[in-house]
Please model this.
Amino acid sequence: MTRVAVRMGTLAVAVVALFAVAAAPVTAKASEESLRERTHARIAVIVSDAVNAGLYSEAQENYVTSALLPTYVDPKQLSGKVEDRTVEGFWEIVTTDTGLSEGQARNRLAKGASLMRITGDASELVQERLYRWLAKPVFAAFLDGRITASESASLRDDIARSIDRLMRQPGGEDGKIAISPRRM
Model:
């Protein structure tokens, strides 16, 4: 009887330990570089979709994405599903407070309007939502202590700059790059 009790006790401890290990949160390794690559990939997917639709030129695409990484760096590949969700999420943010459908917004962009002009009075709100959406993983990594405050600030500045560049670019086929004023 004692032997059975010892085995049951040992088994109980092993099961509890197994569940404790299985339930322990797994902290994904994050670095400023990996977060920068992830954000760059998301922005690249959005702008690449616009280039493929004839809404922006490749020069404009490079201008927007270079706010995060140099133009000679290719964005990391995202799965098709993540790319689709990223593009859908972007247009949802752009159209939520504008009263426009995605098709209407794309049509106006194709005719040469900028996203800032298309979103009108809601442009600051749209820009803030895009920033929060893209910067969310950066905030989480900073709060979890996986990146430093200066790494977080640097990356968030680059995200803000890329969003500003994206919002100011005129659409259409002329491919002119609208240089935004330098933010302090």
Remarks:
- The chain has a mean pLDDT of 81.
- The chain has one domain: 32-168.
- The first helix runs from residue 2 to 23.
- The chain is about 65% helix and 0% strand.
